[in-house]
Design brief:
This protein is 42% helix and 24% strand. By secondary structure, the protein is α+β, with helices and mostly antiparallel strands. It binds alpha-D-galactopyranose. Alpha-D-galactopyranose (GLA) binds next to helix 5.
C-alpha cells in the first residue's frame, strides 16, 4: 500500500501537542486550537482577479497547544521543523528567523495593529499537513495563530477581518502577494461542504457535498519549483496590467463574449492569461451548479478543462502535475476518476482528483506505479472529506 493518509491523525496529534508542550514548558497547555489545510476544487488564480473560487478545508491540519507565560515575549516550538524561537513583544515586530515564524510574526503584528492587547504566551506547533505541498500550510499557520490569540484573550475577531489580517501577514511578512482564498477557506470551511467564495463581494456560500460515493483524492507531487513565488507575483501583475489596458477594474468584469476583442488589444501572452481567467470564472460557476444538481461527470469535465487552461494559457503547471492529470485522464470515469487538476498556486504541489470510492484502491495503485516510471520520487496520497474551518479544541478559561 502506498503512503496514504486515510484518517488524519486527529486524536494522536492532540496527544502529541499536549505531550510536547508539557515537556518543553513544564506545565500543561491551557488552550488547544486547530487550523486545517485546504484544496481548491476549481477557480484557480481567480481570487486576486476578484473572481469566484470553490475550495474546501481538508482534514490534515496544524495544531497549537498554548498557555500564557506572564512574560513580554512569545516562545514558540515547532515539532514540524524541530526548532523554536523567541519573539519579543517590547520591540516592533519584524521579519526574522526561522522562516516559518514570519507567518506568525505577521499575525502578531496584525493583532497589535488592530489595537488589541498581545499577551505573552508559549506555544507548540504540531501538524499532519504537509508543508510546501500546495495545501496552504502557511494560511493554516496564520489562521491558527489568530485563533490562538482569540482563545487566549477571549476577544474574537470578525471572521472576515480575521481572514484578511492573515492575508496581510502573508503579504507583509512572507512577501507573497496572494489573494485571500486560502485564509477564507481556513476560516469559513465547513465539514462536508464546499465554500463558494465570491472574491469581489466577499460573499461566502456553503454548498453541501452530497456525493457519498465520491472522494477527494489529493495527490502530492512533493515538488516545489523555485519559480513559484516570483512567477505568482508576475502573473498577478500581468492580470492587473491587462485589466487596466482593457479599461476594467479587474478581469472579473471582462465578459467571455468579448474575448476576441481582448485579443486585439493585448499581446499574445497577456491574452492567454486573460483567457484563462475569463474561462475559469465561467467554469467555476458551472461547477457550483453541477455540485448543486449532482452533475458529477460534468464537474469532472470542468476540472480537467481547468487543468488544460492552467497548463496551456496560464502556464503555472509543471511536468509532474501534468503527468498526474494525464494518468487520471487515461483512467477516466470507467477507471474511477471523474476529474483531476492541479490545485493552488502551481509549479509543483498537489493535484486534486474526484474518485469513485469503490475504485479508490485501484486508482492509487495504478497512479503510483505509472507515475514512478517517470518520476521515481513518487507521489503521496491524502484522502479527505471537507472539514471545518479553524476552531478551539480545548480552553480551560
Ligand atoms: C495561492 C495563493 C491564493 C491563490 C492560489 C491560486 O494558493 O495563496 O491566494 O491565488 O495560489 O488560486
Amino acid at each position: 500500500m502506498p503512503a496514504v493518509s486515510l484518517n488524519p491523525s486527529g486524536p494522536a496529534l492532540v496527544a502529541e501537542a499536549r505531550r510536547i508542550f508539557t515537556a518543553r514548558f513544564g506545565r500543561a497547555p491551557t488552550q488547544l486550537v486547530r487550523a486545517p489545510g485546504r484544496v481548491n476544487l476549481i477557480g484557480e488564480h481567480l481570487d486576486y482577479n476578484y473572481g469566484p473560487v470553490l475550495p474546501l478545508a481538508i482534514e490534515p491540519q496544524i495544531l497549537f497547544a498554548t498557555a500564557p507565560n506572564g512574560l513580554e515575549c512569545v516562545r514558540l516550538w515547532s515539532a514540524v521543523f524541530g526548532e523554536g524561537c523567541e519573539i519579543s513583544l517590547t520591540e516592533p515586530l519584524m521579519r526574522g528567523e526561522p522562516g516559518w515564524s514570519n507567518y506568525i510574526r505577521g499575525v502578531l503584528a496584525g493583532w497589535q495593529r488592530s489595537g488589541r492587547t498581545l499577551p505573552g504566551f508559549d506555544a507548540v506547533i504540531v501538524s499532519d499537513l504537509p508543508a510546501g505541498g500546495g495545501l496552504s500550510s502557511s494560511a493554516a499557520l496564520e489562521v491558527g495563530m489568530a485563533t490562538l490569540l482569540e482563545a487566549l484573550t477571549g476577544a474574537p475577531l470578525i471572521p472576515e477581518e480575521k481572514a484578511l489580517l492573515c492575508q496581510r501577514a502573508e503579504h507583509d511578512f512572507a512577501g507573497l502577494p496572494c489573494g485571500f482564498m486560502d485564509q477564507f477557506a481556513c476560516v469559513f470551511g465547513r465539514a462536508d461542504h464546499l465554500l463558494l467564495l465570491d472574491c469581489r463581494s466577499r460573499e461566502t456560500t456553503l454548498i453541501p457535498w452530497t456525493a457519498d460515493d465520491l472522494v477527494f483524492l489529493v495527490i502530492d507531487t512533493q515538488v516545489k519549483h523555485d519559480l513559484a513565488t516570483s512567477a505568482y507575483a508576475e502573473r498577478r501583475r500581468t492580470c492587473e496590467a491587462a485589466a487596466h489596458r482593457l479599461g476594467v477594474t479587474s478581469l472579473r468584469d471582462w465578459p467571455e463574449a468579448r474575448l476576441s476583442e481582448a485579443e486585439s488589444l493585448l499581446d499574445a501572452v497577456a491574452f492567454r492569461r486573460v483567457r484563462h481567467v475569463v474561462t475559469e470564472i465561467a467554469r467555476t460557476f458551472a461547477a457550483a451548479s453541477a455540485i448543486r444538481t449532482g452533475a458529477w461527470s460534468e464537474l469532472g469535465r470542468l476540472m480537467f478543462a481547468s487543468h488544460d487552461s492552467l497548463r496551456d494559457d496560464y502556464e503555472v503547471s509543471c511536468a509532474e502535475l501534468d503527468e498526474v492529470v494525464r494518468l487520471t485522464q487515461e483512467l477516466g470515469e470507467a477507471g474511477g476518476v471523474l476529474g483531476c487538476r492541479m490545485t493552488g498556486g502551481g509549479f509543483g504541489g498537489s493535484a486534486i482528483a474526484l474518485v469513485r470510492r469503490e475504485q479508490l484502491g485501484w486508482v492509487w495503485e495504478r497512479l503510483r506505479s505509472a507515475y514512478m516510471c517517470r518520476f521515481p520520487r513518487g507521489v503521496k496520497f491524502i484522502v479527505t472529506r471537507a472539514a471545518d474551518g479553524a476552531s478551539v479544541l480545548f480552553s480551560s478559561q
